[in-house]
């Protein structure tokens, strides 16, 4: 009886630690993904403003980013 309780207790502790580890890794991945998306959004906003104000410069920026057409 005591052995069963100790076994379940150890299993519960290991399970909680595993869940914490999994969710911390997933949280880190989502944080990095969110940061990348946020920076991409601001880059797009700056590009749109640049396209309105200076279309030639925006075309050069797009050419630099995407590469020259073959």
What is the fold's blueprint, element by element?
Layout: H1 2-53, H2 55-66
Q: What is the H/E string?
A: HH
Helix-strand makeup class:
mainly alpha
Distance between the termini: 76 Å
* Fraction of residues in helix: over 70%
Number of strand segments: 0
Q: How many helices?
A: 2
Regions with little confidence, pLDDT below 50 for 5+ residues: none
What would you say this structure looks like, in words?
With 70 residues, the chain is mostly helical. It has one domain. The protein has 2 helices and no strands. The protein is rod-shaped, with a radius of gyration of 25 Å. The model has no long low-confidence stretch (mean pLDDT 92).
Q: Summarize this, please?
A:
91% of the residues lie in helices and 0% in strands. It has helices at residues 2-53, 55-66.
Protein traits:
70 residues, mainly alpha, 2 helices, 91% helix, rod-shaped
């Amino acid at each position: 009886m005591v052995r069963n309780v100790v076994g379940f207790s150890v299993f519960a502790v290991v399970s909680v630690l595993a869940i914490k580890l999994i969710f911390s890794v997933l949280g880190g991945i989502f944080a990095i993904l969110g940061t990348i998306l946020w920076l991409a959004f601001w880059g797009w906003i700056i590009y749109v403003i640049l396209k309105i104000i200076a279309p030639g410069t925006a075309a050069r920026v797009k050419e630099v980013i995407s590469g020259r057409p073959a």
